[in-house]
Specification:
mainly alpha; elongated; 191 residues
Length: 191
């Protein structure tokens, strides 16, 4: 049982690294097998199709995303700080050597039109992130639209940083988020 779990994890980690670095369609299952160091038979026993492997990689990326958000928010003492921690998380991520943009956007762009399973996982991750922001905005007693605005800033920062190679997109998005949060709370403060 441990060997199966270990092989499974090695395959997912290897596929994630290859798909994220080179693109899903440019990476064959044999390259994943070689990178993971498993026999082809084991690879296909774990993942009967490339689509199944991509879906599992996206679930793996969801765990990484949620863990990163939680770690960034851990030191926050206010809801406002937890909202802004999203952009601090993005800033740290954008500065990593292997940053290639949002894995969900990348996967959706490559396969969303031909793989309903991949499209569903990408949409679910974006929906979960939106709910995370919506819950925080509600805790702040801010208008619900604030979460939509903050999500667009985060998504736009990811795309901008990936395409332009500018990690400062996160800091710019954070500054805009501060303005939006303050504006959303201003009517309440002046009432």
């Amino acid at each position: 049982m441990t060997e199966i779990a270990t092989a499974h994890d090695r395959i997912v980690t290897a596929a994630d690294r290859l798909f994220y670095g080179r693109g899903i369609q440019s990476v064959g299952m044999d390259a994943v097998r070689a990178e993971a160091g498993v026999p082809l038979k084991r690879l296909y026993a774990e993942f009967p199709s490339k689509d199944a492997l991509v879906v599992e990689v996206l679930h793996h990326r969801t765990d990484i995303w949620e863990s990163g958000l939680a770690q960034a928010a851990a030191g926050a003492t206010t809801v406002r700080e937890r909202l802004l921690a999203v952009y601090d998380f993005l800033d740290a991520w954008f500065r990593t050597d292997d940053f290639r943009g949002c894995g969900f956007i990348n996967a959706f762009g490559e396969l969303g039109g031909v793989s309903p399973a991949v499209a569903d996982v990408a949409r679910e991750q974006k929906s979960t992130f939106q709910r995370y922001l919506t819950d925080l905005a509600a805790e702040l007693d801010a208008p619900p639209a604030l979460a939509d605005h903050l999500a667009l800033l985060a998504e736009g920062a990811q795309t901008t940083a990936a395409i332009s190679g500018r990690p400062d997109a996160a800091a710019q998005a954070r500054a805009a988020a501060e303005i939006l949060i303050d504006a959303a709370l201003a009517p309440r403060a002046s009432a």
